[in-house]
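User: Fold this one for me? It's UPF0298 protein C7K38_10100.
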Amino acid sequence: MLDKEETFTIQKRRGLIVWVYSLKQLKNLRRYGFVHYVSQKMKYVVLYVNEEDMEKSIEKLNRLHFVRSVDISHRPDIDMNFAEKIGTKAAFQVQEDIEEDDSNEQ
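Assistant: Here's what I get for UPF0298 protein C7K38_10100.
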């Protein structure tokens, strides 16, 4: 049985876009992280690695002869809270206007 004191910790992960010359060596990329997506037409692989191992993984991937370049996903760096940008009052105001129009029509 599992101890109740053991807790599940979420690993911080980062997406890497690995541009390759050929997809023949795709199996070799699986040892560096989790392969999420493969584009056969544009020849790139989206690979997820632990954030603490990211720098080492990028260095190792760049040394491979079939890798063109490696790009880092910047999605975790982007602030996804848009309430201040849109204005929450403005969003509610539109709904109130619609409700007022419906009541006026009746």
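One thing worth pointing out: Strands lie at 13-20, 34-39, 44-50, 67-72.
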